[in-house]
Amino acid sequence: MTGRPDPRLRELALLRRVRDRIDRDYAQPLDVPALARGVHLSAGHLSREFRAVYGESPYSYLMTRRIERAMTLLRRGDMSVTEVCFAVGCASLGTFSTRFSELVGMSPSAYRRLAAEDAAGLPGCVVKRVMRPIRNREALPARADLS
């Protein structure tokens, strides 16, 4: 043993730092080149490796975090859809609404109306678990034979 860290483990640690930064700073202006610079990787390499490890691109992961937070804010009911859009770090209401609809299956306005009715009387932790967005890879049916 040389005592040198395994390069693959080092890279996994860098990818985890990127994921943690997205989780923490989702409302900040983040993009893949900035995330890559933060861990001294190229944007292309970061995107490929992040997808290989986490099953989706850094941008997709970021948007999912933003939509999850938006769902919470919309359930509260004290902010408009536009206010929620900007509060979670999206710069475009159109992009936010499109991505929200893709992940949740309905527009932010429709979600806000339904969530207020459906969540009445439920504890917040239950509502968060039941009403979280489903990423594409989670929605895929399990395959018994992968060969």
From TrEMBL:
RNA-binding recorded as keyword: no
Pfam families (alphabetical): HTH_18 (PF12833)
MF-aspect GO terms: DNA-binding transcription factor activity; sequence-specific DNA binding
PROSITE patterns the record matches: HTH_ARAC_FAMILY_2
Sorted UniProt keywords: DNA-binding, Transcription, Transcription regulation
Residue ranges of domain HTH araC/xylS-type in the record: 16-114
Keyword Protease attached: no
Xref: PANTHER family: HTH-TYPE TRANSCRIPTIONAL ACTIVATOR RHAS-RELATED
Official protein name in the record: AraC-type DNA-binding protein
Organism: Nonomuraea jiangxiensis
